[in-house]
Amino acid sequence: MKPSTLLKAALILVLLVGLLLLFWIPVTAIPRITSLDTQVALFFVRGGNAYSVHPKGLAILYAMGVLGLWICAELLVMLNTMRQNPFIARNARALLRIGWVAMAVTALAFWAGYRWRDSLMSLGACAMLILGLFAMTLSQLFGQAVRYKEENDLTI
For residues 43 and 108, is the Cβ–Cβ distance under 8 A? Predict the structure, then answer.
């Protein structure tokens, strides 16, 4: 099995599982009124244990999940250009968009980590920050490769 085929299968699997999770979470969340502060919280029951999630926190997790799935879809589209020539302007722009989306996820994760004092969320934000910077750097490299390719195509 070629590495690109394995990568494509992994991206498709991530997209399918991600979409399944986006639809599964509202079905399993049971709205309850908490007695302490009379705010609506969402409870997930798993193995007899209830886990509560604030609705704003769930909205942020949803936004991060949708943006992450969008990144996977963009990578899948880029992977399909590997058969011919991956050094095209569309891929350079796609990497730049991935970088900006990763920065948006970083901002959401840092805010959520600060708001709910969740150090794991802040750690994930650091990883997304590195991913965003990497994608933006790679976008610049792809853009330069596209310019060199176009210049060489004009040379006899």
Answer: no
Total Cβ atoms within 10 A of residue 112: 21
CA 120 to chain centre: 16
Per-residue pLDDT tens over the stretch 72-98: 999 999 998 888 888 899 999 999 999
Please give the order of strands across the beta sheet that includes 40-46: 29-33, 40-46, 49-53
Report how far residue 102's alpha carbon sits from residue 135's, in angstroms, rounded to the nearest whole number: 9
DSSP-assigned states of every residue in 86-152: S-SHHHHHHHHHHHHHHHHHHHHHHHHHHHTT-HHHHHHHHHHHHHHHHHHHHHHHHHHHHHHHHHH
